[in-house]
Design brief:
seven-stranded mixed sheet; globular; about 110 residues; about 0% helix
Length: about 110
């Protein structure tokens, strides 16, 4: 059992930046990796970025070079630094942890609009 709490979403103009945070609690010893996914209205949820406890990262092609995922293992927290945001980045961003099963946070809204 893992609980995930995200924060940091909001409204930004194109070209702006946001940093999302996700903190895990509960059976954290089972967590092998954490990551960020997003879902826009009417769209399927898609991968944004993942990071293992060893620091290996993967990024979606659409955000590569603009977003950076990082983690603080001591705090069981993962971050997503989002730079040069575009309107197409607008979505609910969800934190995910991989343990015995997948765990999801409640999501945080990111809106990119002028």
């Amino acid at each position: 059992q893992v609980q995930l709490v995200e924060s940091g979403g909001g409204l930004v103009q194109p070209g702006g930046s946001l940093r999302l945070s996700c903190t895990a609690s509960g059976s954290i010893f089972n967590i092998a990796a954490m990551g960020w996914y997003r879902q826009a209205p009417g769209k399927q949820r898609e991968l944004v970025a993942t990071i293992t406890t060893g620091g290996m990262t993967n990024y979606a092609d659409s955000i590569k070079g603009r977003f950076t995922i990082s983690r603080d293992n001591a705090k069981y927290t993962v971050y997503l630094q989002m730079n040069n945001l575009r309107p197409e980045d607008t979505a609910v961003y969800y934190c995910r942890a991989v343990g015995r099963i997948f765990y999801w946070g409640q999501g945080t809204q990111v809106t990119v609009s002028s």
